[in-house]
Design a protein that fits this description.
Elements (H helix, E strand, L loop, with lengths): L11 H19 L33 E8 L14 H15 L4 E2 L4 E3 L2 E7 L3 H12 L9 E6 L9 E4 L4
Antiparallel strand pairs: 1-4, 1-5, 2-4, 3-4, 5-6
Length: about 170
């Protein structure tokens, strides 16, 4: 395993790029190799969350979004009268910190959707967004069973897109 903290000469942005490439490799291995290379300019599949315009030029630009779906499961060791979902605040705080650092953008307010609670990320390449989602799923107290949906702002509803199990392996 590569320890990024052991590479002090690598700047923060370079570390993020390296992490993104590592995530892309993990996604490719887990999905049977169908992940698009973000450097492959021949691809017509947008791989960044930056607005893209379809080649016909007739549709509006779209922004890539990663939805993080976390099962609505009570926190561990709750005492009487305790908040049942303390991990929601923990995730919101974690994502705000990532946004403050400029790594990702929080696209919209998190919300309850069916039997999950959904958080929305944008503002970076898909591998970076998915790595952030994986970090969310790995936070202490976050229930097992989280997954990400790779989608865009034109999706007609929450939960449409490509499903990716979290945390990434």
């Amino acid at each position: 395993m590569i320890e990024l903290s052991s590479m002090p000469r690598i700047q923060h942005r370079t570390r993020l790029l390296l992490v993104g490439w590592l995530c892309l490799g993990m996604l490719s291995a887990c999905s049977g190799g169908d992940v698009v290379d973000p450097i492959d300019r021949r691809s017509h599949v947008p791989t960044t969350s930056q607005p893209t315009t379809p080649q016909d030029g007739h549709a509006e630009a779209m922004t890539r979004i990663v939805e993080i779906h976390v099962p609505l499961t009570n926190g561990r060791d709750l005492s009487a009268g305790s908040y049942a979902f303390p991990w929601i605040d923990k995730i919101d705080e974690f994502l705000i910190n990532l946004e403050d650092e400029g790594q990702v953008e929080v696209y919209d307010e998190s919300e309850e959707y069916g039997d999950t609670y959904v958080f929305f990320l944008t503002g970076a390449a898909d591998p970076v967004l998915l790595f952030a989602a994986s970090r969310v799923a790995s936070l202490d107290g976050v229930p097992a069973g989280a997954f990400a949906m790779l989608t865009d702002e034109n999706a007609s509803e929450i939960g449409l897109g490509r499903r990716i199990e979290l945390p990434l392996r």
